Amino acid sequence: MRSRKLAFVLALALCLGTAWAIAAKVMSVSVRDGQVRETPSFLGKIVGKATYGQSVDVLEEQGDWSKVTVSGGVAGWMHKTALTTGKLAMSGGSAAPGSVSGKEMALAGKGFSAEVEADYKRSHGGNFAAVDAMEQVSYTPAALLAFLSKGDVKPQGGGR
Amino acid sequence: MKLRTLLPCAALVLAALALYGCRNPEGLSQALGSFGSIGGAPVGDYAASAVKGVTAVAHAAEDFNPQQEYYIGRAVGASLLAKYQPYNNAAANTYVNEVGQSLAMFSDMPQTYGGYHFLIVDSAEINAFAAPGGLIFITRGMLRCCSGENALAAVLAHEIAHVQGKDALRAIKRARTTEALAIIGGEAVKHAGGAQLSQLTNLFADSIGDIMTTMVNNGYSRTLEYQADKTAVAILTRTGYAAAGLPAMLAEMQKRLTPGGADFAKTHPNPGDRITELANLARVAEVNEPEVRAARFKAALGNI
């Protein structure tokens, strides 16, 4: 009898598997300059910024967008691809010993970093200046939609 | 008795989760944690061995975090730009970025750590490269295969698909990835310095080498290329370009590719095969572009 109840619980848990994913509360910013917007759209007004590794509480999801509160106070919408599951421990010393797994340390930006890049550049060279210049070219979603519109390119269903 | 009924149930749940985990290994391990225990033994323990295979597969590409992917991409870009010179034509590069960044916005991965950036390189080869994280390079030779903006969009969408699929990261040898992630995951790296730094730098350099070899010499598997074409069609359609732009562009490329050449002829399946593979999604057709679009393409790339 008890086992039947447990089996039911397990089946229910299975059904709720996807719902669980949504219920996961804490996520981390996975892009360098995360934008928090007023509405769930790339055209939404930017109400705040969130930087790589900062943790956010996910309050709601709508399509590709998550409504979040960034640690520190700002609330708004972030695109789901700017977020990653789990908590990122950013600074080596702040977390209590044992509270951060190896996996989380890997997520915390250790390893392949600016420091490794500099060391690699010394030994292997490469045209990093050209890469730096390339990274400067960036357009806002509003400017890109205007560009498409001027060329009579009509996105299906508007900006994601 | 209790255990005998419970285990099949648990197995069923784990099987379903393993399927889910193929797409989301990180979510999987958390989901397992949230199940608590059965008969005193944590479900996660059974799961650990049951889904080890899933995790091992994911280890190759997904376990590099976005910041590491970004640095790998920068170094791949720096290596490519030591081999190919940037084409210094601001108007042409601006235009390619406008088209490319617009497409990226409609991909499944519109945001990456450092964003998407496009650059024309000064080479007559028919070639294009996508470095991890969103640095995309296209040769003048490839642009000459493009009859209009729609065709250009098709090429760029294919490259964005490689970024989205993390295909370049998959080129890093498995053993290397495992070793790198083991060092990165280790507590000691908190204070990276000396031996550890040089060990990491060596692994980093070897990883860049793996990617360059695949990207420039060997090419990705046919499967990955066909998949990138299919993803490109989705990106084109969402953005508002004609899907036919891709097969049309491939047909033009076929005319221009020199068999045995050191460019796309070497690293990609034959354009004809790619067209055949795409037949269910998009067929070769003339893409008529509005005057204003044709004019801006000509103004930016007419003399490429």
Automatic annotation (TrEMBL), chain A:
Q: Span of the secretion signal? A: 1-21
Gene3D superfamilies, A to Z = SH3 Domains
Keywords carried by this UniProt record: Signal
- Cite the PROSITE patterns for this sequence: SH3B
* Pfam families reported for this sequence: SH3_3 (PF08239)
Record-annotated SH3b domain positions: 24-87
Q: What is this protein called?
A: SH3 domain-containing protein
Species name: Solidesulfovibrio aerotolerans
UniProtKB/TrEMBL annotation, chain B:
Q: Which UniProt keywords apply?
A: Hydrolase, Metal-binding, Metalloprotease, Protease, Signal, Zinc
Q: What's a single GO BP term from this record?
A: proteolysis involved in protein catabolic process
Q: Which family does it belong to?
A: Belongs to the peptidase M48 family.
Record note on cofactor: Binds 1 zinc ion per subunit.
Any idea where the Peptidase M48 domain is? 92-280
Report what the protein is called: M48 family metalloprotease
| Cofactor(s) annotated in UniProt | Zn(2+)
- Identify the species of origin: Solidesulfovibrio aerotolerans
Q: Give the taxonomic lineage as stored in the record.
A: Bacteria, Pseudomonadati, Thermodesulfobacteriota, Desulfovibrionia, Desulfovibrionales
> What Pfam families does this protein map onto?
Peptidase_M48
